[in-house]
Amino acid sequence: MSKQNNKNIKNGDNLLVKQLVEFGLSEKEAAVYISLLELELAGVNEIAKKAGINRSSTYVVLESLKGKGLVGTSDDKKVRQYIAASPEMLHRVAGDLAKKQEEIRKGIDSIVPELKALHKDTKHRPKVSVFEGREGLISVFEDSLNCKEKLMRVASSVENLLHIIPPDYFPQYVKTRIKRGIKMRGIHPANEFSKKIAEMDPEEFDELALIPVNKFLVPVDIAIYDNKIGYMSPKDGGIAIIIEDEVITDAMKKIFNLAFEEARRLSKEIEKK
Q1: Are the beta carbons of 32 and 65 closer than 8 angstroms?
Q2: I need a labelling partner for 177 at 20 to 30 A (CA). Which of 11, 103, 109, 212 fits?
């Protein structure tokens, strides 16, 4: 590896590169693997820059590491992203490259703790899904109909999506939701469409707070249910994002409940007028 390349690898990592080479990886494979451990999830350009090798060589090295089970890919984004496997996978690599050579196995054992210090566990990362267009927005509505908690927390103007989703879909959605026993705790602006939707509520099945239009400052529709948070926007023909994570969703539920208390207060002021 050239002196220029070494500048991209920290001094502590240089020793790891040398040790990994001794255990069967090439110098470039070791540099890319260690770089990816630190980056967690990255594209080819970022990996190449971090490892200090050119882009075309990085593609070849990544494919080699994939074949050894040390690198995986994520297709969540348009540009392919790569993720390093846990350093524990080096045990299997050692077994494949040098069968029953206990010296190599012991050597790997000696550096696994240090490699683990570089590796950040991605198992509990939030899952993010993106949906586009009318069908994408509708698919998020349909997903909410599978709510196991039987309670949805929603902040929605409804009208935001009217020019994308057919108006007759919403009454149908509300009927299906109620039929499935899924209640809604909703914050909505007191506009005509929201009032029509509220009138569909049989015997106050839902908890709704209709607040003054000038007080509803939420630019997107938000739905919180089970361990998911859905954001829906009419931007660019309609886009929806679902974040799936228990801890983040629990925090949002608590924040929403506080907002709902204030919304009910504003709603009562409208009723008095």
Answers
A1: yes
A2: 212
Collapsed DSSP state (helix, strand, coil) of residue 58: helix
Output the pLDDT for position 210.
87
**CATH code for the domain of 140:** 3.30.870.10
Confidence (pTM): 0.53
Query: In a 3-state reduction of DSSP, which class is residue 223?
Result: strand
β partners of residue 74: 81
Type of residue numbered 12: G
Which of 206, 183, 191 has its CA nearest to residue 157? 191
Instruction: Report d(CA 200, CA 235) in Å as an integer.
Output: 28
3-state secondary structure of 2: coil
- Kindly state whether residues 29 and 161 are assigned to the same domain: no
pLDDT in tens, 45-93: 999 999 899 988 998 999 988 887 788 887 666 778 888 877 777 666 6
Domain boundary among 118, 137, 165: 118
Say what the alpha-carbon torsion angle 135, 136, 142, 143 is, to the nearest 10 degrees. Answer: 160
pLDDT tens digits for range 219-234: 899 999 999 999 999 8
Reduce the DSSP state of residue 251 to 3 states and report it.
helix
Strand pairing report for 81-84 and 71-74: antiparallel
**Total domain count for the chain?**
2
Give the residue among 124, 125, 118 at the shortest CA–CA distance from 38: 118
Return left, alpha or beta for 201; rule: phi > 0 is left, psi -120 to 50 is alpha, else beta.
beta
What is the domain-level CATH number for residue 42?
1.10.10.10
Rounded CA gap, 36 and 71, in Å?
9
3 state DSSP class of 9? coil
Same domain, 132 and 114: no
Range of the domain at 86: 3-118
